[in-house]
């Protein structure tokens, strides 16, 4: 596109595009945001809008435009597609501009800085690599949460900022992309210790970071300072709502990598990626957006300290036993808005009058919460004066738009009240003028009307044109009416419109000043939001416990995992679930056999989910549960290809297994399902056998190992901490019945052909499969592998 031949506004756009090369620019033109595109059809398709053309002259620039009031929804679409979007606003009133309206980019929106989003956290991370270690800083821009930690594996985020020098490392970028995140590069100088440390000191206005638990030589300072600089550069704001930075040590929480989160279906099911069939769907009875976010965080960060877990469990127990207090709390929480994000919008000057109204109404509800038993969570304070201020300033019927006023109370400012009186008197005068002219002209249906184009006018029907006096000046002719003005009407119009314009300008000025006052209460509101969120999650846990018949678990530092009649919290709500026991002590390995479709994977996930639920302070679906503290949950369940990384199913399986063997400890819980099935039978058996031996001799973690390799049952005879189990089935002639019950002892039957029959394979295929199966069983060589391996074990031990 030759921009030099286009309109001045388009040339202005071209200059911005040179600076913001990697961004789509949403360019404000009046009541629209335009995207100038060389390929306009692509732009229109991205936004799912109709293509427009608003260029002047012979060359008509193809544009994709959206109404300014609908920007948020289109921003979300673009960002979810992986684009960065620069928002270019008009920086002056077009009516007062001399020549071209001054415009400038006021914000760059990226996947990690999208505020127009769901109630879930939107996290952006920055990563600094030193040696083989990773220093990470994470922020939710909408709430002001800001923390540092070690390594990416145990956190979830939407965007990762890395040094430009790392961005050219394709292998490294590919590794980070495995987390399914957007990657942005940022100049290396921002990651230097001096620049990063200074950025943090300047932002928090402190002389040292030691008060936040960070030394100057801590590599995490480099990640945090760079992230803060990136946010300032993209948001072009002071970010005053980010009040502190916390240190999140990995040892404080159970670690679950993204593989475990996916396989346990904590937030999304594996089938279609929706929340249906997830643990979150079961546990989330929260009433507030803050509670919903905190619940997700607790699920990702189960506790490792018994007193903290016990405190949560005791509080859930109190709410379970006190129905009236629980219901009263839920009723109040239901009317509390997202005060955490509302105060964030205030700090970034993106709040409107309705946001302040919602903040006031929500804080009034917060003050109604009364629960003396949880005094540390219900001692709300520090924002009483804010409520008085907002009550005095904002009208209850305030509109969303700040353009034309009507949101500030008249008594809030003397000048504002005076202007409203002028406008009111003017309208009363117009009413009396209308009556006077009716009487003078004899036109009974004469009326004074108004529109933005022509202002105020007298409207006369066609049948009364002969009665129009000479001082009426024709303004507009319509089919059945004509419109006129008089000198008197024009004078009054100027007075009224001048007052209206001044009201709009004054209200906007007063509103900006009000925002600055509200900012002073940020910490008090953020603290209240955290308290409300915790109350909400505890109440949610209690509600779920009552509805689904959960019990309070005993959590301690022992090596015991004792679950009596445990149930899968998700599956039990969909089918008639068969409860199962789990009894494991220090470093035990359960080898679980049984046919496909019998429930091996479901049972293993059930054990992991009950451990997780207990350590986040939630009751569990069981008759009794004692949970010895677990430091990490590892899973290797399911088969899939990692197409992004170009890895086969078997390579993914081996990578995940290797990660477990390298990082699991004696206090970990390991779930392994069908190790070795991605390769040939003999290779698979060999790998599975060797993995079990390594887990027994070296890792010594509690392990649930599901397999179809029945020869592995022989290992239990040689190794004291291995035990065989199977999921029972009942044979009835050619039919089998899945009993879904875990019993001790191995099995040598898989019933794979029967499961294939259930799946609907043609009868001819089933018959032939049975014939081939009988032939192969006669020639099976696995016994030789078994004998050879056991002989080697005798020599070793």
Number of strands: 26
Helical content band: 40-55%
How many separate helices? Answer: 25
Unreliable sequence segments: 1-5, 51-60, 641-646
Radius of gyration from the CA trace?
Answer: 34 Å
Strand order in the sheet with the most strands: 3-4-2-1-5-6
Question: CATH-wise, what's the superfamily of the largest domain?
Answer: P-loop containing nucleotide triphosphate hydrolases
- Counting helices, strands and paired strands, the structural category is alpha/beta
Distance between the termini: 78 Å
What characteristic shape results from the CA principal axes? Answer: elongated
How many separate domains?
A: 5
Features:
MutS, DNA mismatch repair protein, Chain A, domain 3, 6-stranded mixed beta sheet, MutS, DNA mismatch repair protein, domain I, 797 residues, disordered N terminus, elongated, 5 domains, 26 strands
């Amino acid at each position: 596109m030759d921009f030099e031949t286009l309109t001045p506004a388009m040339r202005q756009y071209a200059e911005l595009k040179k600076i913001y090369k990697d961004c789509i620019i949403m360019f404000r033109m009046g009541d629209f945001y335009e995207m100038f595109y060389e390929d306009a059809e692509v732009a229109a398709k991205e936004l799912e809008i109709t293509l427009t053309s608003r260029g002047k002259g012979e060359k008509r620039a193809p544009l994709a435009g959206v109404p300014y009031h609908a920007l948020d929804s289109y921003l979300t679409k673009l960002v979810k597609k992986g684009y960065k979007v620069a928002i270019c606003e008009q920086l002056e009133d077009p009516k007062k501009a001399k020549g071209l309206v001054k415009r400038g980019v006021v914000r760059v929106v990226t996947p990690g800085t999208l505020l127009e989003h769901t109630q879930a956290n939107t996290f952006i991370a920055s990563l600094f690599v030193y040696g083989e270690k990773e220093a990470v800083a994470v922020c939710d821009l909408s709430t002001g949460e800001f923390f540092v930690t070690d390594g990416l594996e145990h956190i979830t985020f939407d965007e990762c900022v890395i040094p430009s020098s790392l961005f050219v490392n394709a292998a490294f970028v590919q590794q980070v992309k495995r987390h399914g995140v957007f990657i942005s590069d940022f100049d290396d100088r921002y990651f230097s210790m001096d620049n990063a440390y200074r950025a943090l000191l300047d932002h928090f206005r402190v002389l040292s970071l030691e008060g936040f638990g960070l030394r100057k030589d801590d590599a995490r300072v480099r990640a945090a300072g760079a992230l803060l600089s990136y946010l300032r550069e993209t948001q072009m704001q002071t970010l005053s709502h980010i009040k502190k930075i916390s240190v999140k040590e990995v040892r404080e929480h159970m670690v679950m990598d993204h593989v475990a989160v996916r396989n346990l279906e904590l937030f999304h099911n594996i089938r279609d990626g929706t929340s249906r069939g997830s643990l979150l769907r079961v546990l989330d009875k929260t009433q507030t957006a803050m509670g919903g976010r905190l619940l997700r965080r607790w699920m990702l960060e189960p506790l490792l300290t018994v007193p903290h877990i016990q405190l949560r469990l005791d509080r859930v127990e109190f709410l379970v036993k006190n129905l009236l207090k629980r219901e009263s709390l839920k009723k109040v929480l239901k009317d509390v808005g997202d005060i955490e994000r509302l105060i964030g919008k205030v700090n970034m000057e993106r709040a409107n009058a309705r946001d302040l109204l919602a903040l006031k109404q929500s804080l009034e509800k917060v003050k109604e919460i009364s629960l003396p038993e949880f005094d540390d969570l219900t001692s709300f304070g520090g924002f009483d004066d804010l409520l008085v201020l907002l009550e005095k300033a904002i009208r209850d019927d305030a509109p969303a738009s700040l353009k034309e006023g009507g949101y500030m109370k008249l008594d809030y400012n003397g000048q504002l009240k005076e202007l409203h009186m002028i406008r009111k008197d003017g309208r009363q005068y117009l009413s009396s003028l209308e009556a006077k002219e009716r009487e003078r002209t004899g036109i009974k249906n004469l009326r004074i009307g108004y529109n933005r184009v022509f202002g105020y006018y007298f409207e006369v029907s066609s049948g009364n044109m002969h009665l129009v006096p000479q001082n009426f000046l024709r303004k507009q002719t319509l089919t059945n009416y004509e419109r006129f003005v008089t000198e008197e009407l024009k004078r009054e119009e100027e007075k009224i419109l001048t007052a209206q314009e001044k009201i709009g300008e004054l209200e906007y000025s007063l509103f900006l000043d009000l925002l600055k006052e509200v900012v002073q209460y940020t910490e008090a509101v953020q603290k209240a939001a955290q308290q409300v969120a915790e109350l909400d999650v505890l109440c949610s846990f209690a509600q779920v416990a009552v509805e689904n018949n959960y019990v309070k678990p005993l959590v301690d530092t022992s090596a015991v995992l004792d679950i009596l009649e445990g149930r899968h919290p998700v599956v039990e709500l969909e089918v008639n679930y068969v409860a199962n026991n789990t009894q494991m002590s220090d470093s035990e390995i359960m080898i679980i056999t049984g046919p496909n479709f019998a429930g091996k994977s479901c049972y293993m996930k059930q054990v992991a989910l009950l451990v997780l639920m207990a350590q986040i302070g939630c009751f569990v679906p069981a008759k009794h549960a004692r949970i010895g503290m677990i430091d990490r949950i590892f899973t290797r369940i399911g088969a899939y290809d990692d197409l992004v990384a170009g890895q086969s199913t078997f390579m993914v399986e081996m990578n995940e297994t290797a990660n477990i063997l390298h990082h699991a400890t004696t206090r970990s819980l390991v779930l392994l399902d069908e190790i070795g099935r991605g390769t040939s039978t003999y290779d698979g058996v060999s790998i599975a056998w060797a993995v079990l031996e390594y887990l027994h001799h070296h890792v010594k973690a509690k392990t649930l190992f599901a397999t179809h390799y029945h020869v592995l049952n022989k290992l239990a005879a040689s190794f004291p901490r291995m035990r065989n189990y199977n999921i029972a089935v009942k044979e009835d002639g050619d039919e089998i019945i899945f009993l879904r019950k875990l019993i001790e002892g191995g099995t040598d039957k898989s019933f794979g052909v029967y499961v294939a029959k259930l799946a609907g394979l043609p009868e001819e295929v089933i018959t032939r499969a049975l014939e081939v199966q009988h032939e192969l069983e006669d020639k099976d060589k696995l016994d030789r592998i078994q004998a050879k391996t056991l002989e080697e074990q005798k020599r070793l031990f």
